[in-house]
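User: Let's play a game. I give you a shape written as tokens, and you guess the letters that built it. Ready? Here's round one.
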């Protein structure tokens, strides 16, 4: 079958896939959301949260849980769930360090505490979902990582996982195929615990519902244009009116305008996903995927894939696209070359699903930083706290980060605030044009490492310097 298809606009969609939609699947099937409330005049509050993704929503909810007397306002420039939170893969992973290897590499002295905090955070998310009856299609199905080449790589990984207390089982090639019938992959590792799947857009809407129930005020279609310190207060200017606040949490992810120093650390990188139509019962049986685990491969250019509640396959990842000057645009969320490549790779991995069609393709920006894990800080004379740099693994980490951002304002003795994880910043990215060139060079070297199994001098050097690039 020929896979050379061109996706320029919806109107010129592939002849093979005339029904292909270039929209976020999760939002598309959700249907109409609750009406939007805009700011009407000017108001005052104790805590202003700017940004209505997971980090903003959890920040407001945790603030209200910890200090119910606070008047908390969320201000979202478009609609709740319109950012990465509403369009991601829905993998809920407990790790706060973007996986155990990164943890060992960067935070070895405090890794056991970070692992414990990450697991507790995961447990707390599950508990919150249950206690508040969130309808988010949450499945604690565990995860499997698979490798293209069998050998020592995964055995080493299993050892590293186990020695850090992670329940991990090595799977040989046959055991992988028993879990999922897939071509082009060899061995794998099964992690049955602390890994779940969720409907990401439903989570945004259910957190919004819960936040409103707690008395949190939410304004949508209300961008904060400027955040100013005025005496002991902050003023947030919007096109409609001003919000005065004693404290603020900036939760704007890739948008760094309100805390300009963040731009040194963040590069917006576009990640893409496809969704198939639902598998027939025969197709599903052929996959051997009864464990319903979330899967990813361990290459630098990696795929992640999972089942939905109605047995579609989400197939994402591989390309990570950076645009010169931290440029961002809605147009970047549709990328024909990437969708072509994703289809091609899917067909190679699942040749026996050749009749399975794709229904949706979309992309979104990830706030990549050089340490791959969120970092924290304060600005505006200490009245603003922020977290950023979730680097493609923010579904669970945003909740823990919200706890940190709250403590930075209201609970200065909370022990995790003293950790290097919270106090240290990642290595900054270089300014342009070096940023673009460094990312391009790193991507080429990562692709070469995937091919040859060997890191070149550039990768070895940047890794020694702890200058990383991932999505
Ligand atoms: C395609 C894709 C797949 C991913 N898959 C996974 C996955 O499977 N698992 C995982 O853990 N992570 C995944 N991620 C990452 C994860 O989605 C993010 O880390 C997480 O959603 C970040 O949440 P956030 O609240 O920081 O950002 P966002 O959800 O982007 O929220 C930021 C909000 O701030 C608003 N905003 C910005 N500027 C302003 C302003 N001036 N005024 C008011 N509002 C403003 C934006 O409109 C936006 O709604 C993926 C990301 C992408 C793009």
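Assistant: Ready! My guess for every position:
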């Amino acid at each position: 079958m020929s896979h050379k298809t061109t996706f320029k606009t919806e109107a010129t969609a592939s002849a093979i896939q005339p029904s292909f939609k270039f929209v976020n699947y999760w939002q598309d099937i959700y249907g109409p959301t609750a009406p939007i409330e805009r700011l009407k005049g000017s108001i005052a509050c104790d805590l202003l949260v700017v940004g209505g993704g997971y980090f903003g929503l959890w920040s407001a909810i945790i603030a209200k849980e910890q200090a119910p007397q606070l008047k908390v306002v969320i201000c979202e420039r478009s609609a709740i769930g319109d950012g990465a939170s509403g369009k991601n893969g829905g993998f809920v992973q407990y790790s706060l360090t973007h996986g155990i290897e990164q943890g060992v590499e960067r935070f070895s002295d405090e890794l056991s505490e970070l692992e414990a905090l990450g697991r507790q955070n995961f447990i707390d998310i599950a508990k919150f979902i249950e206690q508040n009856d969130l309808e988010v299609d949450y499945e604690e199905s565990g995860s499997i990582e698979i490798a293209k080449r069998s050998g020592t790589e995964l055995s080493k990984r299993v050892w590293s996982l186990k020695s850090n207390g992670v329940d991990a089982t090595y799977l040989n090639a046959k055991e992988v195929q028993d879990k999922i019938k897939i071509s082009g992959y060899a061995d794998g590792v099964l992690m049955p615990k602390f890994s779940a799947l969720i409907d990401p857009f439903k989570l945004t809407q259910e957190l919004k519902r819960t936040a409103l129930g707690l008395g949190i005020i939410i304004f949508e279609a209300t961008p904060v244009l400027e955040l100013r310190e005025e005496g002991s207060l902050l003023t947030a200017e919007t096109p409609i009116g001003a919000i005065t606040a004693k404290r603020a949490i900036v939760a704007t992810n890739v948008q760094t305008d309100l805390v300009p120093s963040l731009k040194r650390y963040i590069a917006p990188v576009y990640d893409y996903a496809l969704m198939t139509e639902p598998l027939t019962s025969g197709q599903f049986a052929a996959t051997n995927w009864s464990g319903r685990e979330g899967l990813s491969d361990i290459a630098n250019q990696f795929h992640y894939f999972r089942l939905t509640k109605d047995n579609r396959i989400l197939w994402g990842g591989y390309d990570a696209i950076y645009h010169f000057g931290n440029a961002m645009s809605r147009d970047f969320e549709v990328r024909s070359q990437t969708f072509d490549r994703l289809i091609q790779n899917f067909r190679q991995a699942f040749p026996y699903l050749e009749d399975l069609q794709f229904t949706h393709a979309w992309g979104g920006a990830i706030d990549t930083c050089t340490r791959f894990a969120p970092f924290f800080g304060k600005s505006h004379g200490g009245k603003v706290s922020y977290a950023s740099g979730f680097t493609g693994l923010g579904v669970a980490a945003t909740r823990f980060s919200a706890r940190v951002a709250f403590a930075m304002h209201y609970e200065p003795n909370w022990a995790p605030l003293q950790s290097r994880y919270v106090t240290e910043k990642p290595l900054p990215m270089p300014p342009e044009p070096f940023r673009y060139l460094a990312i391009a060079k790193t991507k080429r070297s990562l692709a070469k490492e995937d091919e040859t199994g060997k890191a070149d001098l550039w990768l070895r050097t940047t890794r020694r310097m702890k200058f990383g690039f991932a999505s």
